[in-house]
Each structure stands twice: as structure tokens, then as C-alpha cells.
Amino acid sequence: MLVSYKWLKELVPELTASSAELEQKMSTSGIEVEGVTSPMEGLSKLVVGEILSSEDIPETHLHITQVNVGADEPLQIVCGAPNVRVGMKAIVALVGARIADNYKIKKGKIRGVESLGMLCALDEIGIDEKINPMKHEEGIFEMPADAKVGDSIFPYLDMDDEIIELSITPNRADALSMHGAAWEVGAIYGLPVKLEEKSLTESSVNAADKVSVKVDTDKVPTYKIRLIKGVKIAKSPQWLQNRLMNAGVKPINNVVDVTNYVLMAFGQPLHSFDFDQFGSDEIVVRQAKTDEKITTLDHIERELTPEDIVITANGTPVALGGVMGGADSEITDETTTVALESALFDGTSIRKTSQKFALRSEASSRFEKGVNQGTVREALDFAAAMIVELAGGEVLSGVVESNDYQPALPKVSITLSRVNGALGTDLSLETVEKIFVQLGFGVQVDGENFICEIPSRRWDISIEADLVEEVARIYGYDNLPSTLPVSQNAGELTAMQKFRRKVRSELEAAGLDEVIGYSLVTPEKATEFVGELETTTLMMPMTEDRQTLRATMIPGLLDIVNYNQNRKNADVALYEIGNIFWPNPEDIRPLEIPHLAFALSGHLVDKTYRSKAVPVDFYATKGIVENLLAAYEEVKFIPSANQPGMHPGRTAMVEINGRQAGFVGQIHPATAKKYDIAPTYVATLNLQVMQEEMPAQTVFHDIPKVQAVERDIALLIDATISHAEVVSVIESSKVKTLQKVELFDIYQGEKLPEGKKSMAYRLTFQPVENSMTDEQIASAVNKITKNLVNQLAAEIR
Known about the structure:
By secondary structure, the chain is of the alpha+beta class. It has six domains: about 1-40 and about 160-190, Phenylalanyl-tRNA Synthetase, Chain B, domain 1, CATH 3.30.56.10; about 45-140, CATH 2.40.50.140; about 200-400, Phenylalanyl-tRNA Synthetase, Chain B, domain 3 (3-Layer(bba) Sandwich), CATH 3.50.40; about 410-480, Phenylalanyl-tRNA Synthetase, Chain B, domain 1, CATH 3.30.56; about 495-695, Bira Bifunctional Protein, Domain 2 (BirA Bifunctional Protein, domain 2); about 710-795, 2-Layer Sandwich (Alpha-Beta Plaits). It contains 19 helices and 41 strands. Strands 27-30-31-37-36-35-34 form a seven-stranded mixed sheet, sandwiched between helices. Strands 11, 13, 14, 21, 22 and 23 form a six-stranded mixed sheet that branches. The chain has a five-stranded antiparallel sheet with strand order 5-4-3-6-9, with no helix packed on it.
């Protein structure tokens, strides 16, 4: 909502606060101010000039003009506008002036003719095309005839105004009008509000004899029409055009501009029809019929459905109720009789229609959020009187309406002790009563009880808590006492929060950076790495890319890897801790499962003058997982060739104490190509399983007093046997002194039998008290090798 400071001061005459002070005060009182701007900002040396003479340059569209700008001598200015004429007053940018886009005017020659300035159109001084009443090709802007030569143009065009942009939340739609903003400012500063009034004179002809109204839907509480005959369509006076442009509305003509002016002033949408184009004396408001069509004012034909509200004449839609009028009945230069509409439409219905057709108008926006139901007739009468002032004609007697609808004014009660108890204040009865009076509420005081009659313009107030909020914001949030919460117990982290912090620290110690991805993804990405799974999808997502709750975090990480690598950041190490969403067999709501996922791509070590680059591989990725799970009793990595989206030969499932916790491996090359990323390795782990299986405490072991002993063994085994199986057999031999098993060599080639491979292990024995004898070492090694031979058919080399 754009609020003109000049207009606001007319409505609150005693207002002395500057726009900057007003910005701060309103922002701390419940209505956020986005900022304050001025149309003249960045412009300079623009004055009123009068064209004394105009001479055409042969064989061009240019004119040599002599322009009086109040100086001793007229200025010679070359101009190509088609509407230049002698006696015309125009906008003159002097030499050194700044116009739109910070363009500086300099002396120059055009076709060899010296030009000492520029005659300007509105767009050339920064008036946006959306609100500019003139097209550029129409020529320069003509200033009012009473504009004084040499004066600055800014006061004449109200460009010296200050525009306050309000960010209106849905609960404060009452401020979507100048009257609403004025009441708000008046309440904040305790100042009286003076609203503009107009006297309406009606003719002796009865409007009900010319037209009738019938409402055939429960979505329209009231519908009212006034008829104005003998109007003359023309441009609006400059003050009205200025006021509309400063409010962000494009001037059209005197009738349409009045409806827009009343919309901005009252917040009540109006619509003007060319009554002679109706072809009927009966207006019917109803729900649209299936396949019914209308061509709206933007000259687009739209196919309607029964959920749309239409205004019809002779059975044909002439307007899309509350959204936009029809092209067949719009006001044109030939219009002489105006049918002026003021109504209430159901906000939900209007929202659905405007959303369906992508038609967001000032009118639909207000019907969606709510309008003052008490001023529907007042706004209509004001507009009718104003049209007669600006366009002539006469208003036919009476309002033709579906009913004489008047909203019931609610009464809300509250006690002084309740106000003070809720705010922690010690306000007096008089102070609270004064605040309610400032707000324009009707107040009755019975002891310490306030009975407030709420005006129709504040339809957001209906319960006791609303009154508490009003007292708080008018009294001033910064004036409320501040106290610390009283509690016997200090807050602490939950077990999962503590666990997440521990995991986060370990990952960052490994060199990974944390990212936060989107929980909503496409349906395809939601289950890309988990296979077929029932997902949860939003009924009305903001975008198609964000509609389904993720069942895995890996696609989001791959998108981030792609984003980085496309920007020449090839080496990526990222992790995310968050929730994934799996179907809940016991509830419609999904299960939220805390998960960890990380991705590595590029190089572990960059190339230097003395060493080669070391690329990321499976073992580096697996090593990070092993470090995370180092404290767990039993961790297994089981090869998997069936994990969706993963490389079948470089992927392993992770088990913790027999429970599946996730997987680690390389993204399938086809998947990597789809995401347009380099070879990437990922891992994902279920934090809930990790937390539940984590040892309750760390067991201390004495530091050995004697030296460790190492022995190497080499095995010839089947190529299908994994390293994990060999280690499992070695550890199951239950040699108490065995502390470490390390694979240091593996070979598979032409010198070995087909289907065989050689693996060499280093076994580390570490007794606690006494050194091991040769016999004890040999016995331990024999026990291990015997199990390897028996269980894996290994050949000891």
C-alpha cells in the first residue's frame, strides 16, 4: 500500500511528524513500513517552460523551439515531439539537469542546430510506464495552463510528495486505504481525523425505473448500483492524476479515475459500466455457468466455471465480479450514461477466481483480505458526487440494490486488571479509556470493565485478546516493562541435539562443510536413492520443484555439488543433518527420521610440484564413516549391487550391531551425468539408529606396558571373498592379544590361478602385562590360520 504523505496530512490536519518519524512510529506500532521515497528523488533542474515559437527542420521530424524558462533570454531547444505547439507549457530540463536513469543534460547540437536543454515526456523524468497516462510516442507532457514559467515542476506534479510504502499483513487489511491509514496515524498520535465529504444531489428521475438488480448467489451479501446520465468523458484534472500516480495507479479518464480514487481513499472497490452497452434494464449477479465465456478489460477471452461470480445483463456476463470488468461495457469516450457499482463479494471466491486466471487487481486484493462493510453505500455516493463534479451529468434518484445490508457492530468487553495482567503494566482506567477513544471505538466504562463497540472498519477485532493487543501497540511496545522469565530449571539440549552436535563436530574435523537443503523436492528426487516408496505431496505447492517431502537427502546434496562445480569449485566436501520423511503405517502424517548425508567430489589432495593430485575414492569416503562409527561395538560394510542410483561395484550397506543404518558408495555414472557432476561419493546414515546403538559408556583399558608384536600372513583365496569376511574370521578366532588387523597387499593377476586372489595381512598382538613368547605368538597365528583354512578354504602362502 502506497500512502501519499501530502494526502495523509489532509486527512490528519494536525499531523506534524515528518515522514521519517512516521516510518519509525508506525513500524513499532504494528504496521511495518517498507520505506519512504519521493518521486523527485534523483531529479534536478526541471522547470516550467512556455514555447514561444516552433520552426520545423526540413526533411526531419524535428522542431527548433524558443522556450521561455523565466530567464533573461529564451532557450533554443531542438525537440522531435509531434505535439509541440506555440503557447504550450512543458517540462524543461535545463543544461546540467538530471533526469531518469541519472542522465545528465548537456549542451549539444542536433542536425547542426544548437540545443540548450530538453523538452520532456513523463517517462523521461522517471514516471513508470505502468502508471504513465501518456505513451512516449504521443510526445512531451503539457503542464497546466496556470503553471508559472520558471517554477520547479515538482509541486505541480506532486513529485515533491513523499510516498510511504506499507507492508500490510492480512489481519490489518483495514489499512489498505487512505482512510484506514489516517485512522491508524490518528490513533498513534492521538490526533483527530478529518475525512473528505461530498454532497450528493439527485435528479427527479428514479433510477429504479431504469434498472433493476437481482442477486442469485449467497456469495454476494449486497450489490448496489447508481445511474449517472449526461456525463462527458475527458481527462481528469492534474491533481487527481498526480494523486493516482503517487498511489501506483494509472490515470485513464475522469470516470474511471474517480472509481480508483475512491478505492484508494475508502478501500472499497467500485466499477463503472457504460449503461447503454448493457442491452438490458435488469442486472443479475450469479455464479457463472459451465463453459460460459467473457472478454475482460485486458481483451482476453476467459472460460468460466460455476465457482466464478459474474455480473450479467440480458443473460450475458459483463463483468467478472470483484476481479475485472468486461470489455463490452467499459467506459469509452462515447459513454454518456454510467452505471456505478458498489458491492461486497465473498473473499474466498474472489481469491480462487483471481488465482485461476492470474488476475491480481487492486479490487480483488481488497475483497480477498476484507473491506469495510459499513461504507459500501458511502463510497458509492461519494464517487457519484465526484463524477458529477468532474464529468458533469446528473445522478438519478435512489440506489438500486439487492438489499440494504448493514454489518452488525460487535461489542467486546475487557477489564482493566486483564489488560494490566496481560501486559505486565499498571495502567490507569483513564489511560486505557483514552487509548480506546483514540482508536475510534465506542467505549462504556462500568467499574473497571470496558465495553467497546468496534467500528466496521476494524473487522479484525472480535475477542478480548484483540483489545489487549490494541492497548499494547498504541501505548507503545517499547514502553512495556521487560522481565526475565522465572524458572527453576535451566534449559538444556535434548539427547538428539547433543548427538547431532557431536556428529557435526566430527564431520567438520574431517574437512566437510555443512549445507542446508530443501525438504520439499520433486516426486522423482524424493525417492531417487531409496526405490519405490509412498511419499507425502502438497496439494497446493508453491512450485513444481518443491512439492514432495524428501525420503533421502542425497539428491539435494548432488544439486549443491552441481551448483559448486558449475562455478569452478571442483573440490566439494559437503554434509547435511536433517530429517527425511517416510510413510507412517499408523498415521496419515509421515515419520520424520533424523539423518546424516555427505558427499565428496574432486580431489582429497591437490597437485603440487612434488606430488600428484589424489582424487576422492570409495576408501576415503568409507574412512569418514568408520571414524564416525569407531566407538560402536560391531560395524559391518556389506557390498551391495542393488542400491538405486549407486555404482553396483562400489557401494556398501552399513550395519551397526546388526541394524541397517545406511550406505556408502559412488554415485552411478549415469546418475552423475544426469546431475552434470564429476564422479561423486556419498554416504547416508540414520542418526536415530546411531544414537540408539551408541555404547552407554566408554570402557577404559590399561595402557600396555610391553611392546607390541607384528606378524604377517599371506592368503590365497577365492576372488569372491571380501576383506570384511577375512577380518571377521580372524577376529572370531578370539585371540585376546590380537589388537589390530591391517590389509597391506592385494593381488589378482595372471600369475595366480583363475578365480583366485592373494591378500596379505599384518597382525598386531599387544599383551598387557608380560611379553609374548615365540610359542605364544606361533600358537596365536596358527589358531587364526587354521580358522581361515577351515572357514574360507584359504591357502596360507
